[in-house]
Amino acid sequence: MSNQLIHEKSPYLLQHAQNPVNWYPWCEEAFAKARKENKPIFLSIGYSTCHWCHVMEKESFEDEETARILNEHYIAIKVDREERPDIDTVYMAVCQEMTGQGGWPLTILMTAEQKPFFAGTYFTKKSNGRMYGLDGILREVAKDWEENRGEIEKISDKVSAFMHGNSRIRINESEPDKSILKEAAQTFEDNYDRRYGGFGTAPKFPMAHNLLFLMRYAQFEGEKEWADMAYDTLLHMYRGGIFDHIGGGFSRYSTDEKWLVPHFEKMLYDNALLSYTYLEAYQLTKSGIFREAAEKTMHYVLSELTDGGGGFYCGQDADADGEEGGYYTFVEEEITEVLGEEDGKAFNQWFGLSGTSTLGKMVPNLIQNEQYETLNPEISHLCSKVLEYRKERTKLHKDDKILTSWNGLMIAALSKAYHVLGEERYLNAAKRAERFVEEKLCGPDGRFLVRFREGESIGSGILEDYAFMGFGFLELYNASFDIQYLEKLIRTAELMVEYFEDEENGGYYLYASDAEKLLIRPKEIYDGALPSGNSMVGYLLVNLAHLTGETVWIERSGRQLRFLAQNVKDYPAGYSFTLLAMLEELYAYRDLVCTASCIEDVKPLKEKLKERWCGNLSVLVKTDENKERVDRIAPFTREYPFEKNSALYFLCQDGACMPPVDDVEKLELFWRE
């Protein structure tokens, strides 16, 4: 038995293809059927590594009784939020407005005109003391649909009108101001957990861009305690069970305040952003722990989430054989059986597993290990043995979709790794992934698609696809000084302007002007688990303004920052990637142009940039080979001279230019903090 999802490529949709529910993918056929049969739509949105999505499927969507209700009274549509982030964003906003909360699985009841009248997340099959059951909800709504259709349609019209009004983000522009940054930092400080790191209480999410903001802001303001909050959080996360000490990589979030027991799914975007953040922390502090966390995380991605063609998969599931976290947890005796008595005892003591026979299975962690900063080769060797055992013990589901947006973030992280660590393997992996996206996830017109899987590329790219790939291009250029990546960043920015910008009111829409029209056309600004497309656009435009010196990019970056400033000032701490863009606008900025016969001549500069973090510095490299291309991109460099067999460095700060120098060491005089 199968339903309409059997023809799809999405792992999430295929997980539901054998349900007795007559699921449809999001398509006109489903809406036409709903109109013809006068039925409401049951919309369910999730993703393949979502624990509670699995629970709801097992309880309800595999159940014959629930399926009968749905098939008789509704047209059921299943959506993979990672393939259709536009649909997910629209209806998640509906759920948050109607219920005050959101999450996945997302459950929406709506008319065939896509107007919602009921929203929620996970529902049990039957009602219990704290939650309505799905079967009861479906029966009540089906009855009301037959007897009080007019009232339901009034509700759906009101919800739709409200969402339309709510999507009109304020258009009054205000200038970015340092007070916005100070308020955000103070909010983080007020909510900081001084015992275990992180902000607020359980559950705790990594939110890497919050930590990036605190680290960078502290450098500009000289406020050590703000950076220390970030460093301390990074250390506690590494020591906890949210970090996989056996195989590397971070889980989605911690269910407790200590970072001990995670929600075990691993997502590519978390591991990309956290790799990037740990690398920057290492560059600022030279802490070996931060380097180890970054390297183990990237090793996890390269070994477990990398396609043969170079692209990166979405993630791995939390569940193994129906047990959440079963893949990652152990008891004491299990380890000694694998490693032997002596090695097993050493492993258990190191990772806090001693005594777990009575406590139940536990996730390895370093919370009680005061020697955690000592890199222990013997423990690393034992981890390799346990990893092999873990892989044989049970298997994890892997979502092998390749998403343009998340690949852009991983490309940025790997490029940063080469920039900071100087290891070619990271740059090679970033370049390989970029070629994969170009070959498999770009249309003939150069515009991005959303997803590739099993030879099929689909989806009209949304703002995040362009913005996150733009971030990847920016970091690839900063790492390699290969002009092609700067050219690709500019082309990406031009496409964002053409298809996504709201020229009248400012900001950039979630989906393109020629894409499928949904209930609303929102502008995402809030930086949640991922930076918003608009905040990343602001960051990219500021960098383009400095790298090119072109008036058009200066004006666009200023316009976007004013739009963002107006819309984040009520709660700045919720928009930390926007704050990263503002840091580059509000503090002294240095523009460095290097002319050289060939790229090899700038090796001393690369080494200097590897040694230290240099905030608010753009570097443009012009060689004999690329000078015509650089002149087109940055016309202000046309008259910059070359010196044979040597590099010349031209440094400007806030519009004041210094005399050129031929030795990178002499630049220290100019970019001292």
Your description of this structure?
The protein has 673 residues and is an alpha+beta fold. The protein contains 26 helices and 17 strands. The strands form five sheets. The chain has a five-stranded antiparallel sheet. A four-stranded mixed sheet has the order 2-1-3-4, sandwiched between helices. A hairpin with a 7-residue loop joins strand 5 and strand 6 (262-263). Helix 9 packs antiparallel against helix 10 and helix 17 (404-421) runs antiparallel to helix 18. The longest helix has 18 residues, at 149-166. The mean pLDDT is 93.
Summarize the structure.
The protein is an alpha+beta fold.
Key traits:
single chain, 673 residues, alpha+beta, five-stranded antiparallel β-sheet, four-stranded mixed β-sheet, 26 helices, globular
E-strand count: 17
**Which percent range describes the beta-strand content?**
5-15%
What is the typical, i.e. mean, pLDDT?
A: 93
Morphology call? globular
Total of DSSP H or I helical runs spanning 4+ residues: 26
Strand order of the largest sheet: 7-8-11-12-13
Query: Main β-sheet, in a few words?
Result: 5 strands, antiparallel
Radius of gyration (CA) equals: 26 Å
Query: Poorly predicted ranges (pLDDT <50, ≥5 residues)?
Result: none
Distance between the termini: 67 Å
Assembly type of the chains comes to single chain
Task: Produce the secondary structure layout.
Layout: H1 11-15, H2 28-37, E1 41-46, H3 51-61, H4 64-73, E2 75-80, H5 85-99, E3 106-110, E4 116-120, H6 134-147, H7 149-166, H8 178-190, H9 208-221, H10 224-239, E5 253-254, E6 262-263, E7 266-267, H11 268-285, H12 288-304, E8 313-316, E9 319-320, E10 323-324, H13 332-339, H14 341-350, H15 356-359, H16 377-393, E11 398-403, H17 404-421, H18 424-440, E12 449-453, E13 456-460, H19 463-480, H20 483-500, H21 533-548, H22 551-568, H23 576-586, E14 590-596, H24 603-611, E15 617-623, H25 627-633, E16 647-653, E17 656-657, H26 668-671
Parallel strand pairs: 1-2, 14-15
Antiparallel strand pairs: 1-3, 3-4, 5-6, 7-8, 8-11, 9-10, 11-12, 12-13, 14-16, 16-17
